[in-house]
Amino acid sequence: MKDIKPSDISVVLQGPVNNLTPGALKSVRRFLPGAEIILSTWKGSAVNGLDYDKLILSCDPYLDSQKQYPTNLNRMLVSSLAGVRAVKRKYTLKMRTDFEITGCNFIKLFCNSPAVGNEMKLFIERVVCFAWKPQPGRLLQVGDFFFFGLTEDITSLFEIPLSTDGEFFYLKNNTPSNAHLLSENPNRFHPEQHIWINFLRKSGVDASLRDYTDYNEEMKVLTEKSFINNLVFSSFYEFSISTRKRNLLRYNFPIQKRCYKFSDWVFLYRKYIDKGYIPIYVPPFPSKPKFITVKIVSTLGRFLAIFMPVKKYRRKIRFLVDKSAIYIFYGTI
To answer: How confident is the model at residue 220 (pLDDT cuts 50, 70, 90)?
Structure first.
């Protein structure tokens, strides 16, 4: 079993500097004393007083554009790659500037994971991350929230092309594969799909998804096989990470219907690689009383929101419910 010390790790905090960034930096110092902190952000950012070891300042790829882009995909790719390319240590934790780590479960998940699968070996070792379950509109979609693994593997993942204007506005000029799955997003692919699809193509895998509305059984199987041979899935809670960003609060809950958790990874591993597999390490799950309390709070809050005629008040109720649930889980908001 691997023995990874904090001094073996570089933590890349990627994204804009905001009011949550100081807490993100403090969390790394607390749980990974001795780890290198690399802050990868934009030129002109207010970084005075922030506790980092290395600062990487990039030019905002949208700065001089007259267009309104539908996502921050290229910003994420530029700041992520610039950050991981500055890493000199063996292991890298790539996270956002508005996230905080709450422990070190991700190291245990990595150290106790089996070798990369033989059928579709794309990494040297497995990468621990968040991922979306394959479903209509969400094939081949890893999460871009956090990654932990060998620096070589994390760097390789982000050494992919930026999205072009043709990709950003693809569905304004092309007929979607399945019109009933079309949302307001004109991208060819969701940002997280862009990452994994381009990484697969760079690695010689035929990821022939036409656009994000494309859904077929062959691509669903490719999603599962490419994931299970190279990744370890983890919810926020299982990874030991959380966020106080308003629109992401719900992801702090241990169970998400559309996202993988560790037990889903075990199920897929048994399906495709080893039917008798028993994991060496299983990340902790909230106690039953705590979990039941959160379910009650969440259900009541969303029930009340249904009867709110004004949209902004419905959102406010859901936000307060999510904040309450985070307090129950982590003892802080």
So the answer is: very high
